[in-house]
């Protein structure tokens, strides 16, 4: 009992500990309460975390706040324990039900945590799935500490994520472990997800994309939206096939690095076959858009979903495909809403800006809501095309999309109240508060900030510094470690300066890239 006299105050400290066993929890509690200021231990721990990532600040308060909020969320959802099915550190997808390693979001955690000074969290995220890999080569969708949910599976762009980590923290030992696991994964798809040997790959139920309740599925099977898992339909998915193309290209690169030249040639051949199939079968020259394929009829579904733009973040597309990107993505009647990008086109017959599917409120509908996960992919698509095709108009659109994307994730436009919910309204930007799932790590934002706002883009042999024109008065990012080399970038108006290991300095202006060999 605590008695507080009138006009007085008292301070009370409560201790609580959680561990796999009661004995360990009690011991942790005793050790904490022996400290003079146990709360300060937590503060020191957070400070240590923030000092292990690049320091960033700029004149846009929303960018600065969200950058640090995302590092907070990644640590908040990180697990470092060694217990049960968890031998490596990883990041959970979110709070509540999502507090576990989930394959769909792991690609996001790898892209962002690769910028940490130590690689363990980025590497451990995929090693957790390789350690728990299914016998058939597939990755489990959700890994509980003591058991597996047999029915769960999610697609993800594993190849791109591993390449991104390797560009900052190269390690042949890590690469070899990952290569063996991803080789089994790719062979599973070739064997079980492409019975026709078409080079295009199957979605088998609407849950496994992480994007349930969409017209793209009911277009091939009217019962595809049933609330159960299993083989309720087959759809050759644009997103899934692009992921596999990216994976095969990555496997070819990894095999070459590991001295497996013959396997590298095989993966290159397989990747080119898939690229050709995407261009010949999924691209609709009339509509100027990529579409899913119904394997029963071999025809394009012509359902416009945000996933139709996924080929644009790869090297699959050419100049001839850019008019289609601009025609559909930047059309306010389709995808360029007040808060882009809705998961399904605004002119789709099943579109809803509210979280409803066929008149019923759902937890996670993808028929029109704005998902940070989708926005991460589309931002990459627009930015990649802007760079590949030297297109200033696309560069401006990438700036607009990233800016609107980040500003959407603040309560009432207040820069002191960042959030990250599962999905948002494409017209009002209102989040899915009814779900109660905030601090949700199902997207990548800091990777976008570092690559396009700061302009730091490493490849396999060098680093390009090329900030996009965000119109910032000033920006500073320092303590960026890439392959053991420390970088610092400062922007003042239209000029920027790059420092290497505290010494060499290179100056340029926004719009004129600098390349550094590392």
Commentary on this structure:
The chain has 518 residues and is of the alpha+beta class. 37% of the residues lie in helices and 12% in strands. It is built from 14 helices and 18 strands. It has helices at residues 22-33, 38-51, 61-76, 103-113, 120-131, 158-168, 172-192, 215-218, 238-257, 261-282, 322-329, 372-388, 392-408, 446-453, and strands at residues 55-58, 78-79, 90-91, 202-203, 235-236, 283-284, 289-290, 293-294, 299-300, 356-357, 360-361, 456-458, 462-465, 474-482, 485-492, 495-500, 504-509, 514-517. The strands form seven sheets. A five-stranded antiparallel β-sheet has the order 1-14-15-16-17, with helices on one face. Helix 4 (103-113) runs parallel beside helix 6, helix 9 runs antiparallel to helix 10 (261-282) and helix 12 packs antiparallel against helix 13. The model has no long low-confidence stretch (mean pLDDT 96).
């Amino acid at each position: 009992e605590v008695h507080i006299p009138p006009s007085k105050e008292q301070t009370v400290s409560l201790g609580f500990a959680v561990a796999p066993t009661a004995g360990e929890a009690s011991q942790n509690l005793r050790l904490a309460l022996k400290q003079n200021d146990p709360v300060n231990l937590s503060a020191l721990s957070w400070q240590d975390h923030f000092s292990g990532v690049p320091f960033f600040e700029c004149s846009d308060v929303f960018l600065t706040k969200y950058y640090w909020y995302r590092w907070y969320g990644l640590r908040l959802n990180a697990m470092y324990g060694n217990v049960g099915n968890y031998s490596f550190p990883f990041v959970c997808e979110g709070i509540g039900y999502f507090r576990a390693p989930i394959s769909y979001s792991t690609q996001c955690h790898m892209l962002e945590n690769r910028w940490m000074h130590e690689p363990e969290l980025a590497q451990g995220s995929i090693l957790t799935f390789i350690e728990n890999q299914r016998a058939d080569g597939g990755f489990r969708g959700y890994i509980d500490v003591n058991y597996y949910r047999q029915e769960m599976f999610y697609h993800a762009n594993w190849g791109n994520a591993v390449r991104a980590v390797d560009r900052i923290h190269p390690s042949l030992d890590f690469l070899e472990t990952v290569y063996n696991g991803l080789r089994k994964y790719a062979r599973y798809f070739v064997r079980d997800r492409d019975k026709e040997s078409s080079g295009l790959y199957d979605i088998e139920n609407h849950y496994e994309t992480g994007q349930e309740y969409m017209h793209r599925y009911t277009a091939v099977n009217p019962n595809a939206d049933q609330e159960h898992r299993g083989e309720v339909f087959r759809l050759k998915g644009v997103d899934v096939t692009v992921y596999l193309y990216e994976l095969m290209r990555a496997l070819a690169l990894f095999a070459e690095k590991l001295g497996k030249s013959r396997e590298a040639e095989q993966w290159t051949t397989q990747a080119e076959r898939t690229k050709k199939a995407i261009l010949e079968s999924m691209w609709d020259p009339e509509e100027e858009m990529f579409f899913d394929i119904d394997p029963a009829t071999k025809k394009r579904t012509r359902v416009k979903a945000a996933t139709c733009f996924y080929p644009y973040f790869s090297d699959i597309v050419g100049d001839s495909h850019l008019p289609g990107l601009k025609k559909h993505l930047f059309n306010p009647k389709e995808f360029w809403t007040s808060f882009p990008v809705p998961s399904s086109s605004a002119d789709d017959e099943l579109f809803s800006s509210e979280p409803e599917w066929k008149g019923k409120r759902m937890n996670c509908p993808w028929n029109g809501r704005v998902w940070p996960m989708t926005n991460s992919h589309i931002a990459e698509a627009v930015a990649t095309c802007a760079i590949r095709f030297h297109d200033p108009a696309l560069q401006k659109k990438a700036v607009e999309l990233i800016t609107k994307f980040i500003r959407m994730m603040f309560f009432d436009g207040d820069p002191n109240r960042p959030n990250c919910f599962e999905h948002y309204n494409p017209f009002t930007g209102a989040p899915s508060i009814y779900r109660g799932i905030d601090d949700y790590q199902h997207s990548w934002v800091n990777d976008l900030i570092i690559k396009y706002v700061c302009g730091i883009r490493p490849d396999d042999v060098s680093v390009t510094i090329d900030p996009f024109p965000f119109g910032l008065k000033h920006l500073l990012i320092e303590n960026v470690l890439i392959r053991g080399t420390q970088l610092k970038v400062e922007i003042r108006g239209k000029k920027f300066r790059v420092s290497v290991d505290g010494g060499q300095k290179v100056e340029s202006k926004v719009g004129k890239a600098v390349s550094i060999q590392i």
